[in-house]
Amino acid sequence: MTLIEFIQQSVDTTSRNIEKTIGLLQDDCTIPFISRYRKDQTGNLDEVAIENIAKAMQSYDVLIKRKESILAAIDEQGFLTETLKQNISKSFDLVELEDLYLPFKKKRKTKASIARENGLEPLAKIIMAQRSEDLSSIASKYCKGIIESEELALEGARDIIAEWINENGFIRKLLRRKFEQKAIVSSKVIKSKEKDEEAKKFEQYFDWSESLSRIASHRLLALLRAENEGFVRVKVEIDKEDALDSIERTIVKTDGNCAEQINIAIKDSYKRLLEPALSNEALQEAKLKADKGSIKVFANNLSQLLLGAPLGEKRILAIDPGYRSGCKIVCLDENGGLLYNETIFPHPPQKDSAMAMKKIRSMVNSYKIDAIAIGNGTASRETEFFIKKIAFDKPLQVFIVNEAGASVYSASKIAREEFPNYDVTVRGAVSIGRRLADPLAELVKIDPKSIGVGQYQHDVDQNLLKNELDTVVMHSVNAVGVNLNTASKSLLNYVSGIGEKLAENILAYRAENGAFESRSELKKVPRLGDKAFQQAAAFVRVVGGVNPLDNSAVHPEAYAIVEKMAKDLKISMDELISNKKMIESIKVENYVTDTLGIMTLNDILKELEKPGLDPRKSAKVFEFDASVKTIRDISVGKVLPGIVNNITNFGCFVDIGIKESGLVHISQLREGFVSDVNEIVKLHQHVMVKVLEVDESKKRIQLSMILN
User: Fold this and answer.
1) CA–CA separation, 505 and 528 (whole Å)
2) In Gene Ontology terms, what is one molecular function of this protein (predicted)?
3) Helix intervals (H) in 325-374
4) Helix (H) or strand (E) holding 339
C-alpha cells in the first residue's frame, strides 16, 4: 500500500490533493499557511483534513519502521520465510503486525520454554496432529530428567500448545472481534475502602457493569479514575464458554485423547494468556477512544474560549475582588499596559466603601477608563453591586470576566518577566483586564489545562492532549492574526513559521529598532529566513504601516497582483481597498497565475473588501439576577440568566452568578434527542435556565434550558 492509498483510508479527497498536500508538508509549510494560502493546490482542504493527512503520514512512517524492525529481528533468528515476509510486507495494521511477530518475540522464561528445554515439543506436535490415540505410551517415551511421569510430560506438552494457541493470529483476531463487539466492563468496590469519605464520589461504580463498546467516554474515565485511586476493581470480560467454543472449533478436528489434551490446553491458554492480554488490549483501546473524545471536547471548548469576543483597544479598570485582603485594582491603557494599581476594601471586615468609591471615581477620571472588568471569583457579585452604586461622570460598561487560570499566570515565568516589580495580586488583576480586551492574546500565556474548560483532562493521555491543544491554540492565533508591534512573545510563538526562538528575536529587534513599519522588515530579524517569512508574513499585521495591505490577510506574495488590479482600474491601492463597487467589478479569471488560482484570488477580493477584519464577535455586557448572591437564594422553578462556562459530552455547566455552576444535562438542552452538546450551546453563550434541583449540602445545582 502506498502512502497516498494509506491516507485515503482516513481522508476523503483525491490522490492529487493528497499528493500536493504531502509535498507542501514535506517542504516545511505549516497547516495554517497551507489551508489559507495554498487552497488551489490542495483542492480547498481545510485545517482538519490537512491535520489528518499529517497524522496519517506519521502513522505510515511508524508502520514502515516497525515492519523493518520486525523483519530484521525475525531474519536474524533465521525464521523469515518468503510467506511470512509477504504477510508482514502487505500488512498495514499495527495490531496485526504485532500478532505476526508474537511467535518470534524474545520472551522471558515461560512454562512453554521450560517444556521445550525438557524436550517436549515433539510430543506437543504429535498431540496437535490429532492422529494418535495411545498418548500414554507415547508420553512415556519423554519421561526423563525432571519429567518423572507421563502426566508431567503431557502437562509440559499442553504448556507448549497453550502458547501456540495464544500466538495463533487467526484465533487472536477472532477473539479480538468478540471483545470489540461483546465485552462487558464491570467494577466492584474494594470492601476495605467502601466507607471511605473519598470513595463516596464513585459510589455509582461500586457495583457497575456496561457494554464496553457503548460506555460513554466520561463514564469510562471516571471508572478508571476510581480504580486508579484504589476504590474499585475493574474487569473486562466476554462470555467464556463462547470464547472457548470458538477456539475449539478452530483447532480441534477429532475426538479422542488428543482432543481431550488440546481442550485442556485451550482452557489454560485462554485463562492464563489470551484473556488477560486481549481484555487489557480492549480496555486500552476503549480508553484511547475515551481519551480522544474527551480531548475533542476540551479542544472545542478551548477554541471557543480563545476566540471569545474581545472588547478591543479600550482603557480598562480591572478588579480582582476579595474580602479580607481587599480588591486589587489596576488601570490599563489601550494596549494593556499597566498605568496604576491600588487596593480598596469595600467589603467586610473593613467595609470602607466610602473611601473605595472615592478612589474608583478618581481612577476612572484620571486614566480615562472606558470599561470595568471584574473577576468572577470570591466576592465577585458583591463587587459588581458595589461598582454599580457609583455615580460616574460618564456611562461605563461593567463586565464579569472568567478568571480561571489567572492565578497560574500571575505566578508564572511569563508574568514575572512582564511585571518583575509587582506581586502576584497585581499580575492577576492585569490578566483579568487583558482578558476582557483580548482573550486570545492573554490566554495563550497560560497552560490550556489550567483554564478549566475540559473534562477529565488529568486522566487522558497527556501527550495526545498537549498536541491537540497546541494545535488549537496555533489555529486560533493564525485565524485572528496578530499585531506585530504589540504582540507578546507568547502570542508570536504560535504564529505560523515563527516559534519560540524567532519570537524572542522579533521582540529584541522591536526593542532595539522601534515599531515595524512593514511586513518586509521582518526579514531583518536575525535568523528569520525566507521560509519563515513565507509562512508567517500574512498572519502578522502592521497597523498604519507604509503598505495598507500589511494590515490585511493578503499574503505579500500576492501584493503585485493587487497592485495590478488597482492599476487596471486606474485607481490607487488606497482607493481600491474597502471600495466594494470597484472590487465587485474585478474579473478574477484575468489574474490567474501559475501560483495564484481562482480560490486564492476570491479570498483576496473578500479581504480587500474588509481588510484586517477580526473574525471574532464583539464583547457584550451581561447581567446576572441581582437577587441571587449564594446557593441559598435559588429555588426549584426559578428562571435565571446564565453564561455557559464549560461544555462536556453529557451536558454543559452554566454560571448563574454564584460560586457553584449548575449542570444542564444533555437531556435538558432542548426538547427531543440531542447527539452533540456543541450543536446547541457554545462557550460563553448567554442563556436562560430553569432550576430543577438544588442540593445545598453537596453544592450541586441541576438546571434546564427547557423553560416551558
Assistant:
1) 8
2) structural constituent of ribosome
3) 353-366
4) strand 338-344
SS3 at position 653 = strand
- How does DSSP classify residue 549? G
Give per-residue pLDDT as tens, 171-215.
999 999 999 999 999 999 999 888 888 888 898 999 999 999 999
Three-class SS state of 362: helix
Helix, strand, or coil here: 133?
coil
pLDDT score of 595 = 84
* Phi, psi for 635 (deg, rounded to 5): -140, 160
Cβ 303 vs Cβ 479: under 8 Å: no
In 78-168, which residue ranges form alpha helices assigned H by DSSP? 82-90, 94-101, 111-117, 121-129, 135-140, 150-166
Number of residues in the chain: 708
Collect all residues with Cβ–Cβ distance below 8 Å to 541 and sequence separation of at least 6: 481, 482, 483, 484, 550, 551, 552, 612
Can you name the residues that pair with 211 across neighbouring β-strands?
184
In terms of phi and psi (left: phi > 0; alpha: psi -120 to 50; beta: otherwise), the region of 497 is left
| Mean pLDDT (whole number) for 609-631 | 88
Round to whole Å and give the CA distance between 283 and 273: 16
| The dihedral sign for the CA sequence 641, 642, 648, 650 | negative
> Residue 688: CB partners within 8 Å, gap ≥ 6?
639, 640, 641, 642, 705, 707
Q: How does DSSP classify residue 550? A: G
Percentage with pLDDT > 90 across the chain: 83
For residue 687, the SS3 value is strand
DSSP secondary structure letters along 372-433: EEEESSTTHHHHHHHHHTS--SS--EEEEE--TTHHHHHTSHHHHHH-TTS-HHHHHHHHHH
Say what the pLDDT of residue 145 is: 85
Q: Hey, what long-range contacts does 53-59 have (CB within 8 A, 24 or more apart)?
A: 53/7, 53/11, 53/18, 53/21, 53/22, 53/25, 54/25, 56/6, 56/7, 56/9, 56/10, 56/11, 57/3, 57/7, 57/22, 57/25, 59/6
pLDDT tens figures, 19-28 = 999 999 999 9
Q: What residue type is 435 in one-letter code?
A: R
User: What band does 75 get if pLDDT is binned at 50, 70 and 90?
Assistant: very high
3 state DSSP class of 343: strand
What band does 449 get if pLDDT is binned at 50, 70 and 90?
A: confident
C-alpha cell at 27: 517542504
Question: What gap in Å lies between CA 361 and CA 213, rounded to an integer?
Answer: 61
Domains of the chain by start residue, with CATH: 3-77 (1.10.10.650), 316-437 (3.30.420.140), 631-704 (2.40.50.140)
Q: What is the mean pLDDT of the chain?
A: 93
Task: Quick: pLDDT tens for 684-706.
Answer: 899 999 999 999 988 999 999 99
Which amino acid, one-letter code, is at 263?
Answer: N
C-beta separation of 429 from 320 below 8 A:
yes
Is pLDDT of 422 > 90?
Answer: yes
- The answer to whether 383 and 321 are in contact (CB under 8 A) is yes
Q: What per-residue confidence (pLDDT) applies to 410? A: 92
User: 154, 139 in Cβ contact below 8 A?
Assistant: yes
Query: Are β-strands 184-189 and 232-237 bridged in parallel, bridged antiparallel, or unpaired?
Result: antiparallel
**Mean pLDDT across the stretch 372-378?**
93
**Where on the phi/psi map is residue 67: left (φ > 0), alpha (ψ -120 to 50), or beta?**
alpha
Q: Which residues contact 672 (CB under 8 A, 6 or more apart)?
A: none
